[in-house]
Amino acid sequence: MRKMIICGALGIPPEMESQLTPEQRARYEAAMKMMGNGKPRVRTYKGCLTEKERTEDPFTDMNQYPKIKCRQTVIKSAGSDLEVKESCMEETSKADIHMTFHASSPEHVTGTGTIVGTMGGGTMNSNMKMESKWLAATCPADVK
Question: Where are the domains of the chain?
Answer without folding.
Answer: 2-133
